[in-house]
């Protein structure tokens, strides 16, 4: 798992700077951001299952998933910068027409999941529940405003 975290951290540091230039095709940008958001949602969902009581609480597993979520939260945004989209994309036009609002929403989510990561390291389930709820609200807000159903 440490290797996975190291790779994710390296990707989060390097990929955003290089990603924008790599999306020569709309399909590449859409596939990249959907893949990053899928992984983000997967690890966030694992924490959500614990918060909802659908999975047992293991503080180490929650902390590992929270760390991955914090790292992955930085990856999708460069793939939106070029305004590239296709028929597979669920991004609403507002993602590209109101870039400041979209960027603000992304930053709020990154801040909330960073807080969740910090709280998860402490291992207190009640605090994790609160931080998870705050992070989930930022996800919902972005989906409501910028993702087609």
Structural commentary:
The chain has a single domain (2-146), classed as Four Helix Bundle (Hemerythrin (Met), subunit A), CATH 1.20.120. The chain starts with a helix and ends with a helix. The longest helix is centred in the first third of the chain and has 27 residues, at 26-52. It has helices at 2-22, 26-52, 59-72, 94-97, 99-122, 125-146. Helix 3 runs antiparallel to helix 5 (99-122). It has 149 residues and is an all-alpha fold. One of its GO terms (cellular component) is periplasmic space. GO terms for molecular function: electron transfer activity; heme binding; iron ion binding. It holds the Pfam family Cytochrom_C_2. Heme c binds at residues 139, 142-143.
CATH superfamily: Cytochrome c/b562
Structural class: mainly alpha
Mean pLDDT: 90
- Reading off the top of the CATH hierarchy, the class is best stated as Mainly Alpha
Q: How many separate structural domains? A: 1
The first-to-last residue Cα distance is 34 Å
The gist of it:
This protein has 149 residues and is mainly α.
List the helices and strands and how they pair.
Blueprint: H1 2-22, H2 26-52, H3 59-72, H4 94-97, H5 99-122, H6 125-146
Helix pairs in contact: 1-3, 2-3, 3-5, 5-6
GO molecular function, one term: electron transfer activity
Keywords: Electron transport, Heme, Iron, Metal-binding, Signal, Transport
Pfam family, one: Cytochrom_C_2
For this entry, give a set of tags:
single chain; mainly alpha; Four Helix Bundle (Hemerythrin (Met), subunit A)
């Amino acid at each position: 798992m440490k290797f996975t975290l190291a790779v994710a951290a390296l990707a989060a540091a390097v990929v955003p700077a290089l990603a924008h230039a790599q999306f020569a095709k709309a399909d590449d940008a859409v596939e990249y951001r959907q893949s990053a958001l899928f992984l983000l949602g997967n690890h966030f969902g694992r924490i959500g299952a614990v918060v909802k009581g659908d999975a047992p609480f293991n503080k180490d597993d929650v902390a590992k998933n929270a760390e991955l979520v914090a790292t992955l939260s930085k990856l999708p945004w460069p793939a939106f910068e070029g305004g590239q989209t296709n028929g597979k994309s669920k991004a609403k036009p507002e993602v590209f027409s109101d870039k400041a609002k979209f960027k603000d929403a992304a930053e709020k989510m990154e801040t909330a999941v960073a807080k969740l990561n910090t709280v998860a390291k402490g291992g207190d389930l009640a605090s994790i529940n609160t931080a998870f709820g705050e992070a989930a609200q930022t996800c919902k807000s972005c989906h409501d405003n910028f993702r087609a159903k």
